[in-house]
Each structure stands twice: as C-alpha cells, then as structure tokens.
Amino acid sequence: MDETTVLDDVFKRFLSGASLFWDREVLRHDYIPDKLPHREGQIRYLGEIVAPILRGARCSNIFIYGKTGTGKTAVMKYVLAKLGDKAEELGAPVTTCYVNCRLAGTEYRVLSSLCNTIGVDVPFTGLAVGEVFDRFRLGLNSNKILFLPVLDEIDCLVKTRGDVLLYDLTRINETLRSSRTSIIGISNDLRFKEFLDPRVLSSLSEEEIVFRPYDAAELRDILWDRARLAFYDGKVLDGAVSLCAALAAAEHGDARRALDLLRVAGEVAEREGAEAVAEDHVRRAEKRIEHDRIMEAVRNLPSHSKLVLCSVYLLSKAGVNFAITGDIYEIYCELCGECGLVPLTQRRVSSLVNELDVIGLLNARVASMGRYGRTKKIRMAVARSLIRGAFATDDRLRRLTIYAPKCLAEISSGRR
Ligand code: ADP
Ligand code: MG
C-alpha cells in the first residue's frame, strides 16, 4: 500500500469504527471535575481558612503540600472558583490569582502575573525584580482589596531562585495601608520546608494542609467518575479501571498517573477496534507510557550524561552487564574524544551515574568485592533497544551507539 492508501485506510477505520471515547478531554490533567471525591476534608478546611476574606478580614497564609497527583491543584482551583463566585455575589473586594511557579520559571514572571491581576502593567522584561515589586506594592496601596495569590509548585521557584520573593511577600502587609495580602503556597516536594528560611516558613505556614496519597480504592472512585464522562456506556470494563487504580496506587497514589493509564488504554483499545477497554489494554498502556517517559528522559539529558549512558550501553552490548565506574570512565573518555568534548573528572562522572540512577535509566548498587573492598556495579535499568531508539533521533549519538571503543576488548576480556 502506498502512503495515501494507508492513511485513507486509517481514517476510514477511525470514522467507521465504533468509538469508545465520548469526551477524551475529561481525562486531561487540567480538567477540573465538579466533584472531587476523597478531598472533602481538605476542601472544607481550606474553605474555613479563607472564608474571613469574604467579610473583609485578612485570612491566614496557608502552606499546602503533598506528592504529585494528590489533587492539590484541582482542589485549589475548585476552591478559588467557588470563592470568586461568592465574593462577586456579596460584592466583597476579593482578588485571587493563581500562578504556577514552575511554568512561570522566574521571580520576575511570577511577580508580573501578580501585577497583571491587580491591573498593574509590567513590561515583558527589562525591569529589576525590586522595581517590579515596588510597582506591585504601589498597585496594592492604590486600592483597597484583599489579595489572595496562590503560588503553585513554589518548590521549583525556591530551589532555583531562593526564597527572597516569598520573604518579601510574607512581609508586604507591614507596608500596606489599605489592602491586605494572604499567600497560599503549594509544594509537591515534602522536603521543601528545609529550603526555607525559618522566618519565611513560620509566616507561610500559619496554616498547613497535607494531601496524602490516594489508595487504590480511592483512585477507583476518582477514575470511575471520570470514566463515566469520558467513555460511552459500557465501553470500559471494571477490571480495567481497577487495574489503573492498582498500578497508580502501587507507585505513589498518583491520580494523574491513573488518569494517564486510563486515557492511553482507551486509545490503544480504540485503535484496535476493541469492543471495550480491558485489562490487557491497560497493561499495554503502561508499557507505552514507560517507553515515552524514557524517550523524554534521555532526550533531555545534558551531553555528558548522554555519553555516560552511552558508555554503559556499549559495555552492555559487549556483554559486560555489571560495569564498574573505571570501565565506564575509560569508554566515556573515548566517546568525548570522538565528539570533541573535554572529559569531566572521574569523580564528576561518578555523580552523573548516580543522577542517571535516580531517574531510573541506570541501576547502580554497591557490591562488596572481598579483599578489594567495596565497589559500585552499574548496569542498564531499561532495555537496550529503548536507549538505541532514543539515541536514534540524534545523529551524533546514533553513530556512537555503533562505535567500537578501543578499550572495550581489554575490559570485556576481564582484565579486571
Ligand atoms: P497535584 O496538584 O497534587 O499534583 P492535581 O490536582 O493536578 O494533583 O491532580 C492530578 C489529576 O488528578 C487532575 O486531573 C485532577 O483533576 C485529578 N484528581 C486529583 N484528585 C482528584 C479527586 N479527588 N477527584 C477527582 N479528580 C482528582
Ligand atoms: Mg499540582
């Protein structure tokens, strides 16, 4: 078949095939459902804390934390929407603002989002952060509002930029005449508190709310609510939903992961022309998501990490399944030579190996070597074919995957 007929065939099958999805958008991460099962407690508590601003009083600052996919963003947006409606109904001078700090990326952009919400213009770039902050303060002073900024994924900003902005924000009320500000900070990283100056931490966490991971039963309820909206009646089997919930619960109770599994399983099933989404489709979805995750992770690695990974790949291809840092380093230096890069020190390469271990591309464990002491044994954590696939999109790396290092013969003949 030539390509046009292939596509004709694909489209025809797509259009004539019984669709399983009624509305696939419902499974997207940013969809906010009307109901958030198993978060009633957090919603109520958050509501109680912010309620005073409907009566014109400042509310406490709030610090919210929990792992990814535990519903923090969804709950926050839900509460902000309801609060906004109520404030409008009552004519209360409440202004809220939601900023995702990871997406905003810099203090400048976070601040300019806050400014825009209160009607202060800030150029796209060009001012000093302090200058933007002054405009922000001026803007608040020229009004009489209760301002409630929500800084989501605040850990990302603080880790890269420090906590100066948070410090200034938690102090701003001291210099305001009429307006009042309360801050809500949300973090995916449970250890985030360690990054904060104790003064910032104590003012930010006037109230704290923890979002615990969901268990499998809770994830099932959440998924079924979404599945009923996303798929036609009877097009998802109960076993499929339960498996998505179980797999996500086994990881860390991440609802986002569970929704991804269900969506991809639906796509797999639909493409196959299956009658309904079944467990087998979920299993295949799991593989596909893992595959995509690895591709993405490899592609985003810095050059030297790619070469380290490639060195372990070449060793594995030559039959060395457990490599030691010294061997990896030798090959890595050769690869650097091939690419015209100056090699890093062995110590630095050893820490790159650890980073690759953390993201799950390599597997490094410390083994005892009898009288030779302890050494690290390193192997691939994913199938070689996946790494080859990920490297294939980069011409230079593709060539390295078929490169034959000169030191390889010695290493694999067991010199050590
Ligand atoms: P977090 O911000 O904690 O990483 P999110 O709020 O983004 O997590 O939630 C991830 C996904 O799971 C979103 O699509 C969200 O709608 C959904 N979700 C999380 N908790 C619930 C819940 N209790 N009920 C329904 N959907 C939920
Ligand atoms: Mg979030």
Overview in brief:
This protein is of the alpha/beta class and 416 residues long. It is 54% helix and 11% strand.
Please give the CATH class of the largest domain.
Answer: Alpha Beta
Please bin the fraction of helical residues: 40-55%
For the record, give the distance between the C-alpha atoms at the N and C termini, rounded to a whole number: 54 Å
Oligomerization category of the chains in this entry: single chain
> Any idea what the radius of gyration is?
26 Å
Poorly predicted residue ranges: none
User: How would you describe the shape?
Assistant: globular
What is the count of β-strands?
8
Helix count, DSSP H or I runs of 4 or more residues: 19
SSE run = HHEHEHHHEHHEEHEHHHHHHHEEHHH
Q: According to CATH, what is the topology of the largest domain?
A: Rossmann fold
